[in-house]
What we know:
The complex is a heterodimer.
Chain A: E1 21-26, H1 32-40, E2 44-48, E3 55-61, E4 70-74, H2 86-95, E5 107-113, H3 117-130, E6 134-139, H4 141-146, E7 149-151, H5 153-160, E8 164-166, H6 175-185, H7 199-210, H8 216-224, H9 232-248, H10 255-271, E9 272-274, H11 281-290, H12 295-314, H13 316-336, H14 341-358, H15 361-377, H16 379-393, H17 401-407, H18 411-416, H19 424-433, H20 443-453, E10 458-459, E11 463-464, H21 465-490, E12 501-503, H22 512-546, H23 557-568, H24 586-598, H25 600-612, H26 619-628, H27 634-642, H28 654-662, H29 674-686, H30 691-701, H31 705-731
Chain B: H1 3-6, H2 9-18, E1 26-27, E2 36-42, H3 47-54, E3 62-68, E4 75-79, E5 82-86, H4 88-91, E6 94-98
Antiparallel strand pairs in B: 1-6, 2-3, 2-6, 3-4, 4-5
The structure holds guanosine-5'-triphosphate and magnesium ion.
Amino acid sequence: MSTTLESPPQVSAGAGARQLVVALAGNPNAGKTSLFNALTGLRQKVANYPGVTVERKEGLWALEAEQAPARLVDLPGLYSLDAASIDEEIARDIITGRMAEVPAPDVVVAVVDATNLERNLYLVTQLIEAGSPLVVALSMVDLAERSKLEIDAEQLSTSLGVPVVPVTAKSRRGLEELARAVLEAVGSQPPCALWRLSPKAEAEVRRLYAAGAASREGALRDLYSDELPEEAELREAVESARARLSSSDPQWWQEPLTARYRWIEGVTAGAVRGAKDTRPNSTERIDRFVTHRFFGPVLLLLVMTVVFQAIFSWATLPMDLIDRAFGALGEVVRTQMPAGLLTDLVVDGVIAGVGGVLVFLPQILLLFFFIALLEDSGYMSRAAFLVDRLMRGVGLHGKAFMPLLSSFACAIPGIMATRTIENPKDRLATILIAPFMSCSARLPVYTLMIAAFFTDVRLLGFIPVGVVLMLSMYLLGIVVAIVVAWILKHTILKAPPPPLVLELPPYRVPNFLNVLHTMKNRSWMFVKRAGTVILTISILLWALMTFPRSVVKPVPDAQEGAAVQAMRETGVEGKGEPAPSTAKGEGDTSDESLQLEQSYAGRLGQVIEPAIAPLGFDWKMGIGLVSSFAARETIVSTLSIVYNVGKDAGADSPSLIEAVRNAKRPDGSPAWTPLVAVSMMVFFVLACQCMSTVAVVRRETNSWRWPLFMVAYMLVVAYVASFVTYQGGKLLGLG
Amino acid sequence: MSLAYAAPGHVAELLKRAEGRTPAAVSLDALAAGTHARVAAVRGSGAVARRLMEMGVVPGAPVRVIKAAPLGDPLEVRVRNYHLALRRSEAQTVSVVMSDE
Ligand SMILES: Nc1nc2c(ncn2[C@@H]2O[C@H](COP(=O)(O)OP(=O)(O)OP(=O)(O)O)[C@@H](O)[C@H]2O)c(=O)[nH]1
Ligand SMILES: [Mg+2]
């Protein structure tokens, strides 16, 4: 999995025979990925295109038994070569050979949904104009047959001027014929565009051809695309041609679009017989319920509840297991290696850091599983349809719903999912508010605070305050996100309300192979990316808490042993049993906290104390805050160190809860009060304390500007909100 | 409106037939759910109008409004045998004429 795509493929046989590159192009949902999986099996690699998180899938396709397999590239769906989103742009650039990493494809396989022929053929007309050798793979023929739709592939092929091969990925029907057609198409003369414009426009095209355009297709592109040709003479000719056309018809630019469809109507009229309505009745019936005025929103809430329930409850067991495994691993390493700084680094920095990331893997896997399921079945676009009006109220797009929903599990996949939003400003606004959704990393903090100060406290005698608080934190994040989105969309990201042109595809039974592939590929990218960042930060954090070394007073051998023993209880924070506090002698505990106090992290905590005092926090909490800027959940393990309860104490560890309750300030007053706890929770809802999120935003936006802006403004929001919470609470006499 | 040139023969004919009974063209968002119609013109310009046309909403194409979302917007519209969601503001830029089928 770790080999890069750039590395030469294993198969270099075939003395000098260049490896063929084949690209799969087609409308969204046409069946490209299903075909890709069927053709390549497990021989596929997934990475990202540089600078963006558009998935880049490549695999090897054995076209012929004795020949070297071809490189098959799966592309994101696109409706047109005039791209409207990053996804479409990437697909277009690869098809037309403009992407540096992938050589121009030798053959483009256009995947065409047989049940939706006219719209799918629009892209084919453009591919014909683009001029690369083309083969049409007619997918969903099983569905077409079921709805009594007859497509004469030969007739279609004659009219289009390109080979047409009916395929069914699942039953592997037509795959060999497709391979043969692709081999035959290599190096063949590309077909030419057969549709015609009005006489007036055709005259202009001929004139441009005479003025130096490369071909009829080139002249068409020059005349109707957004860009003007470089060469001065040709540019002038194009400009005057456009002026002439627009003077007689202001909508002159629509002509090729209309003409392509007119031609397509002619082609399909000759090749298609039978049922006109191919949309399955089941889809109509399901939609009567799913997008129903009343039941639609209810079902949406239900779906969301199930997804959350799954993420938060089903994932706990595997998370615990991973947690313990890393704890155990740390212990083994600690006993096997000589005690010392290096061991500390490996155990507290590396193993704890990696474990800290992998602990979230079950949640991420589950989330991606549900997302893939909802996407593949066709429900996701219904969700966007249902919430679009609400989202538009704050200037966002219906398509922003999904990314924001994912962000409740983790902002990273959520931010990655924004790539389907066409308008860059809408996309940016969605990215910037995604971290306000309470992700799973906040849960340990909420759990600790509630367990320490609000257990068995009830509102009106029966409503548990803990539940109310937990819900309030989620709501707070949502409300602030709405306000911020509104402000952003009315200031720096001002733009007209984003358009919504969204296909509502027929419902399909999800293909589990597809779902599993998606789940595996996306999770792996998460592990790789988040892993490197969190690992780096954990090591840095470890260093900050370890250096400079405090002056260790000479201790008797026995106590030294105890200290080492205590250090062995190590690793990631977990939900395990409480640390056996009896196992610690006086000497080692004070050593550890003394070390912390003198370390850079400790000094930093003391430096920022004046700034955080108005929020109700002391310097020890300050250390926790500083460390939590790497990843929120680290505050639990940091507080455990600060309060000497052993680093492996989890958020619900009784000893940590006791320690938090009993912590004192220098003047003897309790460090924590319920008000401080709430203030802390508010801060954690609103501050951007997650290095991985920052790293992902950096990648997504291709600059440091937006991630830094995000960290800064969220910090301000969090500070102000905590300040208001704490000072307001004190004024109300709650302190 | 540049109907005469943009619309193919059958739309022009429909327009002619419709003249006596109903106003020639209405915008798509004013179309009652379930009514069959054909696109007469896409009046907008820019990326949205282009995308609509790329998706098959070109003069002559059969359209039918299926329903509105629970909050009244967007609309679900059937075009060329598939279903499309679009906002009322976008539907406003599409004028249609009723058809019999
Ligand atoms: N019945 C049937 N279903 C198919 C066929 N090919 C694909 N599907 C289903 O159609 C849906 C979409 O297929 P994908 O392969 O994900 O389509 P895609 O073109 O990769 O879609 P995007 O990546 O979103 O552009 C899935 O639910 C598939 O299971 C087919 O030949 N017959
Ligand atoms: Mg795909």
